[in-house]
Structures are given as structure tokens and as C-alpha cells.
Specification:
The protein has helices at residues 2-5, 7-10, 25-35, 47-63, 74-81, 89-95, 103-116. The chain is mainly α. It has a domain at 1-22 and 85-117. Helix 3 (25-35) crosses helix 7 and helix 4 (47-63) packs antiparallel against helix 5.
Length: 117
């Protein structure tokens, strides 16, 4: 909405809108596990092995009855293997944007209730 209001300033540029704090996916998963009182275990492995396993898991699940969801997919691996932090500087500079609340904190607060329902 802010980009539309300020379209003459934005001029069609892509602008990232985030909660303002960089949070690695692994950290988010750990926090979610703690909020749900679930043990989260990660297994460090070489990237090439992870890529091979994820492709194999997807191929196997495609032929299994009911097509179950693979434990590891190439997409999942990419979110865990590389940092994906978006910069808010352009939104702040062009739009005066500042996050109004901590979306991660809010989501983690309601996660136990959602999991129980």
C-alpha cells in the first residue's frame, strides 16, 4: 500500500518488506520447536550429499502410494543451506517504513494454540 501511495518515488522498483530483524531459518525452526515443546534435531552433512539425498527423496516419494511428503527436498535444503536476508533500507529510505510489530514473536506466541487445534 505504501509503495502505491508513493508510486512516483518508487517508480516500479522492487521493495522488500520484512519484520526488520534478520533471522536464519534454522533459528526460526529452533524457536518454533521450543514454543511447541518439540525436540528439533538437525544433521550436519556436506551440501553435495544433501542435494543428492533431497533429489532421491523426492523421486522416491513420487512413486510411493499416497505420494508422501519427503523429509528433505531441494527447496528445504536451499532454505537451510544459504542465508536469505532481505534488506529494509530501501523501504525505510523511500517509504519511511518501519515494522510495527515482531511477526516472529507473535507467530511463536500463537503456535502452541494452533498446534493443539
Amino acid at each position: 500500500v505504501l509503495a502505491d501511495v508513493h508510486r512516483e518515488i518508487v517508480g516500479g522498483q522492487a521493495i522488500n518488506i520484512t519484520g526488520g530483524a534478520a533471522l536464519p531459518v534454522r533459528e526460526l525452526i529452533g524457536r518454533l520447536g521450543r514454543a511447541l515443546d518439540v525436540e528439533v534435531r538437525t544433521v550436519p552433512l556436506p551440501l553435495a550429499l544433501g542435494q543428492a539425498l533431497s533429489v532421491g527423496a523426492e523421486a522416491l516419494c513420487r512413486v510411493l502410494p499416497g505420494r508422501p511428503e519427503p523429509v528433505l527436498t531441494p527447496y528445504t535444503l536451499s532454505t537451510l543451506a544459504w542465508s536469505q536476508t532481505f534488506d529494509l533500507d530501501k523501504a525505510r529510505r523511500l517509504l519511511g517504513y518501519e515494522p510495527e510489530y515482531d511477526a516472529v514473536k507473535s507467530a511463536l506466541a500463537v503456535a502452541p494454540r494452533l498446534a493443539a487445534s
